[in-house]
Recover the amino acids of this structure.
């Protein structure tokens, strides 16, 4: 499934083509096979409290959210060979670098997600 994710608090869009990784295999693979992430695209890993960027070829922004889609933590421009986590998160959205800054997303913001086929 693909989602459009918006920051309700800020009135901004995080992306309109956010793929869901909710199976063991899709969570394990993540973005490892990608060489970049196009604007408006991303990956929503659910459930997930921590990620690694081992073997990745590019940096990403991370938005950790709880089950009610409230932002728990953000991390900007996480480069390859890094580890990041948020124990209070239920899932994480991986986005192109610059999305967090452009949308002014911070911890405490409320997101909404609309599924598209």
């Amino acid at each position: 499934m693909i989602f459009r994710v918006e920051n309700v608090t800020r009135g901004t869009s995080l992306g309109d083509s956010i793929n869901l990784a909710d199976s063991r295999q899709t969570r394990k693979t993540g973005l490892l096979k990608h060489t970049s992430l196009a604007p408006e695209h991303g990956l929503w890993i659910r459930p997930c409290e921590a990620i690694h960027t081992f073997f990745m070829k590019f940096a990403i922004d991370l938005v950790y959210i709880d089950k009610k889609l409230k932002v728990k933590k953000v991390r900007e421009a996480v480069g390859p060979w890094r580890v990041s986590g948020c124990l209070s998160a239920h899932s994480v959205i991986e986005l192109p670098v610059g999305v967090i800054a452009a949308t002014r997303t911070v911890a405490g913001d409320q997101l909404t997600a609309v599924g598209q086929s």
User: Anything to note?
Assistant: The helical segments are 24-29, 99-103. The chain has two helices and nine strands. The longest strand covers residues 12-21. The two ends are 6 Å apart (CA to CA).
